[in-house]
Amino acid sequence: MATDITIHVEDREGNTATLSAPTDMGLSLMEFLKASEYDILATCGGMALCATCCVDIMEGEEKLNEMSDDEYAMLDTLPDVLPNSRLACQIQLSPEYDGLRVRLHAMDN
């Protein structure tokens, strides 16, 4: 049984990459994106406390687990949150997420 899934990632410049992500290591999407050298701060270390790992789910949102109250509350603090925005730290990679398309959320500079 294959343990890798395909994730399509669009960076803030509009470039899209198709990446192979392992699902057998217990990684969150945030940890995978950081390991893939995407510009994600993740200053709270994945505790849903900072929203610096916010991504927009472009395809596959219906496959994701329901958002926790903590994630919802953190996203609610962002001025430009979209209906499809999620915290990458709260998405554990799993086989059912194969084909997920995400876009790195715009950051205030």
UniProtKB/TrEMBL annotation:
Keywords: 2Fe-2S, Iron, Iron-sulfur, Metal-binding. InterPro entries: 2Fe-2S_ferredoxin-like_sf, 2Fe-2S_ferredoxin-type, Adrenodoxin-like, Beta-grasp_dom_sf. Residues 3-108 form the 2Fe-2S ferredoxin-type domain. Pfam families: Fer2 (PF00111). Its cofactor is [2Fe-2S] cluster. CDD domains: fer2. Belongs to the adrenodoxin/putidaredoxin family. This is 2Fe-2S iron-sulfur cluster-binding protein.
